[in-house]
């Protein structure tokens, strides 16, 4: 049992640090991932969040690409309803020309922000019909060898055939990914409830496409891996504090860890936080290996994608290194 490992990065702006620090840290994370054989590094589009610096996802990826040489890089994801498909085709077509054979385009359907910011991004939210499937198809048309959205041409974009993934936390994207024959990534790192059902729906309904001949699914988990259990749990308190902030609608930078979690989170809040983060891999490499083996056996995923919500950059890079050393790791032959 061996699957590729990848990383989802939110380019966290840590408490006491700047956006510039976060950008440099993301580049260092990608370099560490490349050095330790990870398959890909993705950045997620979120807007108006004081703890996330990857809002301009394509711009961030240009910097990540310049800091690395072979690892695949991409979006996990771009929230397509926020953008005209042509703009995304041009952005990722440009990235594909800058870094040939290395770019992924993961797409999400959620706004990735609050509704006021979504309105500011979209300008027009008056449509009554969900256009997401049509927008995905339009985007595919711009990136194809033969222009399928005549007379409009994406330059750069046309002929790059950037591989598209659909991301989701419910059955909707699983069904759409199956219908369109696209790889699917499930957000079990923050929305675990429908994980197994979504994977089953995707596999049962998959139709081969030009891009993909059989189902391919990845799943996200958070990870805090350290030399000792106590250290791993200590660093993971940052993620637990972050989810508490989200549930309180407190827009703050990514929090520092604490020794006593009960001093900052009420006991009544913990059951919901623990439920949300129940797939998190927290502990020594040996302990994480056991939980990870169970997760892969239960889901049958083709790829694991980890987020490392660790405030201290040295500890974060150490967690990336320790996770890469877990026996399940499949060393990649770079293409």
How do the strands and helices of this protein lay out in sequence?
Layout (H helix, E strand, L loop, with lengths): L4 E5 L9 H17 L4 E4 L13 H11 L4 E8 L5 H14 L4 E6 L6 H8 L9 H12 L20 E5 L2 H10 L3 E3 L8 H11 L11 E9 L3 H19 L22 H7 L4 E3 L1 H15 L3 E5 L5 H12 L11
Helix pairs in contact: 1-2, 1-11, 2-3, 3-5, 6-7
Quick gist of this model?
41% of the residues lie in helices and 14% in strands. It contains eleven helices and nine strands.
Describe the model:
This protein has 335 residues and is α/β, with parallel strands linked by helices. It is built from 11 helices and 9 strands. It has an 8-stranded parallel barrel, surrounded by 8 helices. Helix 1 (19-35) packs across helix 2 (57-67), helix 1 packs parallel to helix 11 and helix 6 (171-180) runs parallel beside helix 7 (195-205). The longest helix is centred in the last third of the chain and has 19 residues, at 229-247. It is globular, with a radius of gyration of 19 Å. The two termini are 22 Å apart. The model is unreliable at 329-335 (pLDDT under 50).
Keywords:
single chain, 41% helix, 14% strand, globular
